[in-house]
Specification:
It is a single chain. The chain has one domain: Immunoglobulin-like, CATH 2.60.40. It is built from one helix and ten strands. Strand 7 and strand 8 form a beta hairpin.
Length: about 140
Amino acid sequence: MQHVIRWTRVIVALALVAIATPAIVAQEAGKLKATVDYKGSGDVDATHEIFVWVFDTPNIGPDSVPIASDVVTANGASLSFSGLPKEVFIAAAYDEKGDYDGTSGPPPTGTPITIYGDMGVAKAIPTGGADAAVTVTFDGTVRMP
């Protein structure tokens, strides 16, 4: 009888793991298409790129670590991100001088930047399937301190 009880517990435990695993994967399976439109002066090209960083927190600052990042080399280009949590926050910077690599730390002082949201407050962007999308538009009025 104890043998049957033990096997029943094993089967129940495996069933719970099987049920929980898709939920865990679903939490990190968000997709997002981000289109970036720079309205400031200067051309967006292979030397003067726009760096886009995705964060899982609205507290974006010089010490923040992005969960994803990518680069556009044409104005109005789109990037696709996957494996994201249910909501994310985006920051972007235009490499006006063509001397920033996007990975060696925060953008240099004076670099045109944006944090997607209102009045400098990061706005949550829901992720999801293929239809989850956001357009990030900025110009040179806000610059890295």
